[in-house]
Design goal:
Elements lengths: L6 E4 L3 E6 L4 E7 L1 H9 L5 E7 L5 H9 L3 E7 L5 E7 L6 E7 L19 E4 L4 H9 L7 E5 L2 H6 L1 H8 L4 E5 H8 L4 H9 L5 E5 L5 E4 L5 E4 L13 H16 L4 H18 L13 H15 L2
Parallel strand pairs: 1-4, 1-8, 2-6, 4-5, 8-9, 9-10, 10-11
Antiparallel strand pairs: 2-3, 6-7, 11-12, 12-13
Helix pairs in contact: 1-8, 3-5, 6-7, 8-9, 9-10
The protein binds adenosine monophosphate.
Adenosine monophosphate binds next to strand 2 and helix 8.
């Protein structure tokens, strides 16, 4: 594939401790960049930037490699991998963060391999905004499309850096509550208008089991449902898998038309629907293109009238 179809992602690479109302996994491989890459790599070449400590499981590296993810930009450092611990509420729609330990991310200074710098697509997945900026600054040419995700912690403790990077991106994917928190609004439509004034021309607001709202580059609104599922095992990473499916479709097709951005929202929803069916990226492992395309079709059927 040509550089114009390559997709670089920077973000957390983590060992999580996830507690749901019915189960718990103490060493659950996660991190925004891991989920993103596992959801994107079937569709286009993905190049990952991040850092791990000596405790990161070799099996997870093998899974990423088997999925075809380029790990040249994944630094191995002394110390512990980023760790996050969270507990879901009874309805699985909301959760409390119990612990966040940046560990090796505290001293991380990303150095982009030469082969990453000309990629056409860049996603700045959730991590300190200063690291997102450092990666964007190392691209040799401005990518065709730059996307970004963030979360409440960075809105709270790194707001100036976040505002600075937001001014330089095309697409923001963000949770409903975080969109309100970022803008100080209580209404989503007003929040979306404010965010689109801060830089991103396209805004995707993630609403968990209620799906996603996309405010397109033309300002028009598109709503996508989430797939109604009988059992949700672990919602961790659903937002990152959404972003992976969304960006990979745009990178693979190179088509940024409004109609194709809407399709990308459905590809994102498709990958998120797999993510929640297992802990970690378990349900994404080993999927075939046919599996994924059949599930995409279920979304098409779900919304056709
Ligand atoms: P999501 O469920 O899409 O919000 O993403 C969950 C992933 O985000 C988990 O695997 C965590 O390791 C990771 N995560 C949690 N807090 C942070 C943070 N402050 N910065 C970066 N990644 C985080």
């Amino acid at each position: 594939m040509e550089a114009k179809n390559k997709l670089v992602v920077v973000g957390s690479v983590a060992v999580d401790w996830v507690i749901t109302p019915s189960a718990e996994r103490e060493h659950s491989v996660g991190g925004a960049a891991v989920y993103f890459a596992m959801a994107a790599a079937w569709a286009c070449p993905v190049q990952l930037v991040g850092v791990i400590g000596g405790d990161f499981p070799a099996t997870a590296l093998a899974d990423l490699e088997a999925a075809g993810v380029d790990l040249q930009g994944l630094e191995r450092s002394d110390g512990l991998t980023f760790r996050w611990k969270g507990r879901y509420h009874e309805n699985m729609n909301s959760r409390d963060t119990l612990e966040t330990h940046l560990n090796v991310f505290e001293r991380f200074s990303p150095k982009l391999p030469e082969s990453y710098r000309g990629a056409g697509f860049l996603f700045l997945a959730n991590i300190q905004p200063s690291l997102q900026m450092a990666v964007l600054d190392q691209m040799s040419t401005r990518p065709t499309l730059v996307g970004l995700d963030t979360m409440n912690l960075w809105i709270d403790i790194a707001n100036d850096d976040l505002v600075a990077i937001l001014a330089r991106v095309d697409v923001l994917t963000i949770n409903e509550e975080e969109a309100l928190q970022l803008t100080g609004e209580t209404n989503l439509v007003r929040a979306a208008t404010k965010i689109r004034g801060m830089g991103p021309t396209t805004l995707v607001i993630k609403r968990g089991e209620y799906g996603a709202l996309c405010f397109g580059p033309d300002g028009a609104l598109f709503a996508a449902p989430a797939l109604p599922l009988e059992s949700v095992v672990d919602p961790t990473g659903a937002g990152d898998c959404f972003a992976g499916g969304f960006m990979a479709h745009l990178a693979a097709t190179g088509d940024l038309s409004v109609a194709n951005v809407r399709k990308a929202v459905i590809w994102g929803s498709t990958m998120a629907s797999y993510c929640v069916e297992g802990f970690s990226y378990d349900a994404l492992r080993g999927l075939s293109r046919e599996d994924i395309e059949a599930r995409y079709q279920r979304f098409v059927d779900l919304t056709r009238f």
